[in-house]
């Protein structure tokens, strides 16, 4: 008979509180057979923990709440986009994303021939609104620059599609 200690609510129970019995069988290649009282094997450590809520004062060193993680997202993103190479990469992705959206809108409304005038009016209004929003700000932030890059890609995609249709 072997004895093992268990952790329950961060307190270790005495080793003789739980007992395991294991018998080895030569017919099973030396594997251990555990009886009902002998599971799990003594090499395993069974840990039972209680779940405690994080206090509002932040004194608990445990896991964070979802609200705390959401509040950290702006700071993490600012630190992530400090690198000029990351800014250029996401600027290019935004430009190509605008191009892709323009091609998709042009293809879907142009192929159907339904509401294509209304789609063109909505595209022009959105483009003009983004332009007005971008140039009315005293300081250009990175998300605003991404929005302007998206608008430029969108406009470029519509021009390219117009040249394709004209040829």
From TrEMBL:
<dbReference type="InterPro" id="IPR007572">
    <property type="entry name" value="Uncharacterised_Ycf20"/>
</dbReference>
<keyword id="KW-1133">Transmembrane helix</keyword>
<feature type="transmembrane region" description="Helical">
    <location>
        <begin position="117"/>
        <end position="135"/>
    </location>
</feature>
<dbReference type="Pfam" id="PF04483">
    <property type="entry name" value="DUF565"/>
</dbReference>
<feature type="transmembrane region" description="Helical">
    <location>
        <begin position="88"/>
        <end position="111"/>
    </location>
</feature>
<keyword id="KW-0472">Membrane</keyword>
<protein>
    <submittedName>
        <fullName>Uncharacterized protein</fullName>
    </submittedName>
</protein>
<comment type="similarity">
    <text>Belongs to the ycf20 family.</text>
</comment>
<keyword id="KW-0812">Transmembrane</keyword>
